[in-house]
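Sorry to interrupt, but I need a hand with the structure work. Go ahead and set the record down below:
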Amino acid sequence: MNKELLRKVEQTFLIRKIKDMQPITAGNINSTYRVDADGARYILQRINKNVFTKPEEVMQNIRRVSRFLEKKVLQEGGDPSREVLHPIDTLDGSRFFIDENGDYWRMYDCIEGARTYDNIDNPEIFYKVGGAFGRFQKRLSDYPAENLHEAIPDFHNTPKRYTDFELAVLADKAGRLQAIKGQRNHPLKLAIDKILASKEEIRLLELGKLSGELPIRVTHNDTKINNVMIDDKTGEAICVIDLDTVG
């Protein structure tokens, strides 16, 4: 990042004077940096506008959900500063900065003394990560889902995703199925068969939604291991992050 852009970021966000910045290589979509300032540390991200074509709406979703979660955590006697992702405000209240290239930048407070893991071989941590996502869903169970924007069109459209999967299997553009033709017990063949066998369950879920038997609720929709912060000392899962696809 050039010095001029860094200066504008420093002037736009309500942060302390920046001393150093280093790229964080984890993550596949947004460009992420760790920012060290006088007595504070932040996370700076450039939003991938090719994936998220309406960054303003994504940031509105994140801010609304974060504020709601803060209240829930306080009611439970928890610590919102460590259990909730905090977008940093800008001087104009937009919570993002647009550079000369039209790229959108945002900042978060850094949660100290915790980290994410790309790979885990400890079943106990798997269990705690699952619990973190469970708490996340429970805390948002009474959030008015209609107040959120659709970050990516049809991202939550399970019937469409299933149909797209069926078409992809039939097309076999990469030739993976052709390469294992006749191998009934191949892991890829077994995985595809398992998904295709779920068609009736997916149909029932969609019918339940349409009839009102299944309520519409807020979900995270990117429940990966590395989207949960793990406390360095206690090993507890403390905060669900990467809220771009919440809806």
About this structure: The radius of gyration is 21 Å.
